[in-house]
Write a structure and sequence with these properties.
The chain is an alpha+beta fold and 355 residues long. The chain is 31% helix and 25% strand. The chain binds adenosine-5'-diphosphate and magnesium ion.
């Protein structure tokens, strides 16, 4: 008979803990890339170039022209909870940047080979550093860990290689690099539409054809046309609404009653972060059901700004889900505004046809 004595409780190795935490934040290559895009935009970049190999599992590289990272900060760059964007817990409620708890680069360094090359305006050269498990690591065994001077443009290049190399089961779960690449193009496309003033490009390593390429002077509709096609871009109406009581502002572009597709495309940004919300999606589909034929769905780009003190971004480290106060009321006002816009266009069309 097996012993009835309870098994003793032991602490997991820190290394195991770090890997588990990182694997929760970065489930697929696209999650690492999203964090890197947000960092680059936070750094004031006007150009982001992305190169991907094997759906991001072999290589994810993003080159920006932003402020760069101070050489003296490189030793702690990838430690957990090191950030230039937050000092106190209260800062969490007023944060205006994409990142906020300094976990992205740390996480990536625990589950991939990470190289950072960066140059600030006041540095005469760029600096390159390699990371593993939150710390500086030599480029090759036997070499020193300290950052090395190198030639480089102003800005930062982050290279992520062999994602999940030390998580065999996770790595095996990815059967199709092209599926991962599709997810990557989708997120790059979302930020390209949202971040006007920033040029985006994304392509596969070794290929000259661009998966996505939008110039920095593209308008929102220009980028939608580039990425989602002329058909939808020609049928968009813009909307804006704000409300002091619920402390929100919403704006965007939504397809008119002339246009419909099989599945709803919702490009949703809450406080400038790409997020999902089934509640918002459902409400918008409900609104459109009065205007579109059965089975037809809309395209909508919606940017929602809510007073940060009313948003709980801390539900989960991935920050993919967001809770906010008065969700129902806010969604209702947005849908009412969209409905008004749709009926206006509807009437004007009827009028034109009659005259
Ligand atoms: P967070 O974005 O929450 O601060 P990260 O781990 O994503 O945490 O980044 C840590 C810090 O590294 C950032 O606060 C920022 O100062 C710096 N950083 C990261 N990426 C870039 C970049 N592309 N350009 C300039 N600074 C960067
Ligand atoms: Mg970040």
């Amino acid at each position: 008979l097996a012993s009835q004595a309870p098994k003793r409780i032991k602490a997991l190795d820190q290394d195991v803990v770090n890997k588990i935490a990182a694997g929760e934040i970065i489930v697929a290559p696209v999650h690492a890339l999203k964090e890197l895009i947000e960092n680059a935009v936070d750094a004031g970049s006007t150009s982001l170039e992305i190169v991907v190999k094997d759906g991001g599992l072999k290589l994810l590289q993003i080159t920006d022209n932003g402020r760069g990272i101070n050489k003296d900060d490189l030793p702690i760059l990838c430690e957990r909870f090191t950030t230039s964007k937050l000092k106190t817990f209260e800062d969490l409620s007023s944060i205006g940047t994409y990142g906020f708890r300094g976990e992205a680069l740390a996480s990536i360094s625990h589950i991939a080979h990470l190289t950072v090359t960066t140059k600030t305006a006041d540095s005469s050269c760029a600096w390159r550093a390699h990371y593993a498990d939150g710390r500086l690591t030599p480029a090759k065994p036997g070499q020193g860990t300290e950052p090395k001077p190198t030639a480089g443009r102003g800005g930062t290049q982050i290279t992520v290689e062999d994602l999940f190399y030390n998580m065999a089961s996770r790595r095996k779960a990815f059967r199709s690099p092209s599926e991962e690449y599709a997810k990557i193009l989708e997120i790059v496309g979302r930020y390209a539409v949202h971040c006007t003033g920033v040029a985006f490009s994304c392509k596969k390593h070794g290929e000259s054809a661009m998966g996505i390429s939008t110039p920095s002077n593209a308008s929102t509709v220009d980028s939608i046309r580039q990425i989602h096609g002329t058909t939808v871009a020609n049928e968009l109406i813009d909307f804006q609404i704000s409300d002091g009581k619920w402390a929100f502002k919403a704006s965007g572009w939504t397809s008119n009653a002339n246009y419909h597709i099989k599945k709803t495309t919702l490009l949703l940004f809450i406080n400038h972060r790409s997020v999902e919300s089934s509640a918002i999606k459902k409400a918008i589909e409900q609104t459109y059901s009065a205007y579109l034929p059965k089975g037809g769905h809309p395209f909508i780009y919606l940017s929602l700004d809510i007073d940060p003190s009313r948003v709980d971004v801390n539900v989960h480290p991935t920050k993919r889900e967001v809770n906010f106060l008065n969700e129902e009321e806010i969604i209702e006002s947005i849908c009412a505004e969209i409905s008004t816009k749709l009926s206006q266009v509807d009437t004007s069309r009827t009028f034109t046809t009659q005259s």
